Amino acid sequence: MNVVEHVQVEHKWTKRRDEKNRRMSLVKPWLRGSILQAELIVDAMEVLISSGDRVALEGNNQKQATFLSGALSKLDPHKVNNLHMLISSISRPEHLDIFEKGIARKLDFAYAGPQSLRIAQMMEDGLIEVGAIHTYLELYGRMFIDLIPNIALVAADKADHAGNLYTGPNTEETPTLVEATAFSNGIVIVQVNEIVGELPRVDIPASWVDVIVVAEKPYQLEALFTRDPRQISETQILMAMMAIRGVYERHQVMSLNHGIGFNTAAIELLLPTYGESLGLRGKICKHWALNPHPTLIPAIESGWVESIHCFGGEVGMEAYIAARPDIFFTGKDGSLRSNRAYCQMAGMYGVDLFIGSTLQMDEEGNSSTVTSGRLAGFGGAPNMGSDPRGRRHSSAAWLDMISEEGPIVRGKKLVVQMFETFQKGDQSTFVESLDAIAVGREAKLPTAPVMIYGDDVTHVITEEGIANLYKARNLEERKRSLAAIAGVTPLGRNHNLALNEQLRKDGLIAFPEDLGIRRTEAKRSLLAAKSMEELVEWSDGLYQPPGKFRSW
User: Fold this and answer.
1) Distance separating alpha carbons of residues 313 and 301, to the nearest angstrom
2) Disordered: where is this region (predicted)?
3) Which end of the chain is more exposed for a tag (fewer CB within 10 A), N or C?
């Protein structure tokens, strides 16, 4: 009989803590408490950040740690290099400058909309090694598992003299990045707009923060979710009517997420008019996971909306939100408490429906915003635009997706893609093969960067009609249903129109007339607000749009 000898291995269990203390001791003479003078930020970063570190840099949809990202790009690459960057949204030029300068080498990210062309070229040129293109939740999740940051560079509105932080309406991803770093003995560096005697509320306690610097100017904040009703077309209104009648009403959708765009803005502005005429108030669209869209103001004021949880804020909506605490999640001071990670989780598990758009869709319903030469990434769409198989709570909409019989059956989250058959420049949205396949191959990605997989999509809406893909019994039915609403795109032109009558009978497709909608009814007069000025009027003057949206 063999006896296995137990071997005691000696460990040092405090290496990360000791290394943090060593680095912090080097900058201690420069700090007053935790506060650092702005002119010392580059010198301090060159001491606090070591080559090869994982650095989580706040750069999300709206809120950018602009002062810190600018300082990072000024580091001496002979002193600090080969950083592994964790950035949810590649939004600013310096996010990529650091790779060109050799300060950073590896990148894990979720979205790169504003820099999508440049990042694709830099990957092709071998200047960036991409770990993975993530969803937001996926990237945040890995920061607590195998991508634990050594450094976090984040932004907040205010700090007090003790070092507590107030993140304001745009809390976004700040707490997630800070927590992943602070509780693994990493170093948290925060830029703030000002230091005050007393904060409106404490969003992040001082004990989580190591260095605070007052930035030379406020962090960048974008009005990303503002849509001017003047730009909503009659085609988009028609599609919105189909969504309300053929999806929301039919499946009794009570909780939902809307993506960015004029299509969904049209739905929001039709609820108090078209939706009201159908008697749907109180029966659909009560609970939301989305940013505070100004185009939702009429629906809120008309009593349609009961609750909204937000990923982030929206410039100009602050006073309106403070005056509607029954609707929005706010602090005692009245300001919004947003949280990107929590809202992504709510959008994945807590809602019945996600509705978004895409740049390309293939004949099987796979879609992506990654197109030729443009590596945009995904953001949160794959989280919310997928069926979370761990869901166990029921709702009428979820149960309505059950397509088989038996003692053990499951519902499904509604995942809706709504888009016009042609993009700007007469580019067909329906394609034979997604550009994402070739882009992924050129970028040497292990899998094609598909945004939403076809087998998760339950409905597709175009200006032609609705494809009820959840009813398709096989791939062929799925393809025929999509082709039937593909219009005069190549996919649509190759479709046998003689099949449409049977597809309609089987409920696989529905045209406007099948839903009791006349195309001639789709007029801008249906919009509850037809301009930014009317949105302000609906809000009793509380909504204050940014200057670029003011035309009166």
Assistant:
1) 19
2) 370-390
3) N
Q: Helix, strand, or coil here: 361?
A: strand
Which residue's entry shows tokens 């009027």?
A: 537
Q: Please give the model's pTM, rounded to 2 decimal places.
A: 0.94
Distance CA 82, CA 275 (A): 55
CA proximity to 530, closest of 240, 258, 266: 266
pLDDT digit string, tens, across residues 446-488: 889 999 999 999 999 999 999 999 999 999 999 999 999 999 9
Amino acid symbol at 410: R
Helix axes 262-270, 234-243, angle to 10 degrees: 60
Q: Measured between alpha carbons, how far apart are the two ends of the chain, in Å?
A: 91
- Alpha helices (runs of H) in 385-474, residue ranges in sequence order: 396-399, 435-442
Beta-carbon neighbour count of residue 441 at 10 Å?
Answer: 10
Structure tokens at 448: 């094609």
Amino acid at position 543, single letter: Y
CA dihedral 313, 316, 321, 324 (to 10 degrees): -150
Which two three-digit tokens encode residue 510? 């529905």
Q: Which two tokens stand for residue 268?
A: 């929001």
d(CA 337, CA 219): 18
* Identity at 461, one-letter amino acid code: I
Q: How far apart are CA 26 and CA 28, in angstroms?
A: 6
Retrieve residue 2's tokens.
């063999």
